[in-house]
Amino acid sequence: MGGLERLARSAAAAGILAGAFGVVRPAAADTFGGCNTDEGCRPDNLSHAWCYGNGFTSTALRNAATYALGNLDAQTNFTQNRTTSCTTTTDVIFIQFSDSSGPRGDYSCLAFNSANECEQARVRLNSALLTDTANRQKTACHEVGHSGGLRHGGDTDCMRNGAITSGFQTYDQHHIDHLNSQK
Amino acid sequence: MRRIILGIGSLILIGSPILGGCGRTGDGPDEASAGSLVAFVELLSPYSADYDPAGSPQELAERSDVVVTGQFRDAIAGRSLVLNEDPLIEDGYALLVLEIQKVESGTVEGDSSTVYIEIPFAGDMRELSEAIPKDRTVRAYLSLRNESGSPRASRKDPVDVVYIPTTPQGLLVDDGSGNVVQPIEHGSRFGGTNLSDFLPDDVGFPEYDPNAPHEE
């Protein structure tokens, strides 16, 4: 790296760092919802219909999913409704798997509408790693946050990565503002 | 000190996936190949994971079955899981075909010339195959997929041995412009680096924080 380039990068970084380490993260300063490399996938509406997919039989994981959608409903303008069967219009389908080398959970948008909004997503929860209620709820909250359009970010709520010992099972105000900024 | 400088550079680049491309000169990669990496990352962006971040390449290697360096040769359709029977709703996966140039640590199962790396992918397989950056050097920290309890597969794996990246940190692509890109985690970049900063015995990553806010 040349000296000038390094200087330019460092100078630009100073501004970035000032924002990154500020106490408050203003929602307006954070890109959101474009479903691209920077931004989470915005859902098609604020009504989250969800269902148990094939083999999602673990009572503990079902409870975590129920908690996470209930929390989304309670903390934000989203509403949630579990349907007894999955259809092509169900917004979130939960499935489970077990792999000690895998992620704790993950989210994938399966279908988009013409506005590049996610019409249907699936969430996987890893029973091999989610062995206690706190971590099940945290990861379910995390993946449901992705289904609401959030990316990772911050270190104060369930959108952080990795295992926790307690807490981190809700959204912080920054992420609530993002979730509520949608149509 | 170098790590700090590199980390600062990476912070600038987080959220600016094409910035590296904007600064390219005639010495850098050609436009078509660079565009492929951008397109590849973009195609993977509808996926996010909650994972336990490793603190160093060394830790990542300890959690991996094998670490290899190589080049992508293709992306092919992997298994497809049936999320719902009626109506049929499926969850697709892709296998990234990585030709091995060097095994950095561990032992490759089966065919030692190629590994197949699974990623969830519900998009157009042809687009992914066209976008995969075949001319870039890749370092992959991999774990054997050892999964159970998943829904049934309507389409099975086309190969016997399937690896998964050991967290999104485990798949790293050198973009040829002085950045290392982590394509699974939304194209997050480590600016001012190359793959020599990501060897299995390295005790620290360049200072990229996967939990960093996406401030602009």
Report on the structure:
The complex is a heterodimer of chains A (183) and B (216). In chain A, 32% of the residues lie in helices and 18% in strands. Chain A has four helices and five strands. Chain A is globular. Chain B is of the alpha+beta class and 216 residues long. In chain B, 20% of the residues lie in helices and 34% in strands. In chain B, strand 8 (171-174) and strand 9 (179-182) form a beta hairpin. In chain B, helix 3 (31-44) runs antiparallel to helix 5 (125-131). The longest helix of chain B is centred in the first third of the chain and has 14 residues, at 31-44. Chain B starts with a helix and ends in a 25-residue tail after the last strand. Mean pLDDT of chain B is 83; it is low at 1-35 and 209-216. The chains are: A alpha/beta (183), B alpha+beta (216). At the A-B interface, helix 1, strand 3, strand 4, strand 5 and helix 3 of A face helix 1, strand 1 and strand 2 of B.
Separate helix tally of chain A: 4
Oligomer: heterodimer
- Helix-strand pattern of chain A: HEHEEEEHH
Strand content of chain A: 15-25%
Distance between the termini of chain B: 25 Å
The coarse overall form of chain B would be globular
- Roughly what is the average pLDDT of chain A, rounded to an integer? 84
Order of helices and strands of chain B: HHHEHEEEHEEEEEE
Query: Percentage of helical residues of chain B?
Result: 10-25%
Q: How many helices of chain B?
A: 5
Number of strands of chain B: 10
Topology, number of strands of chain A? 5
Radius of gyration of chain B: 17 Å
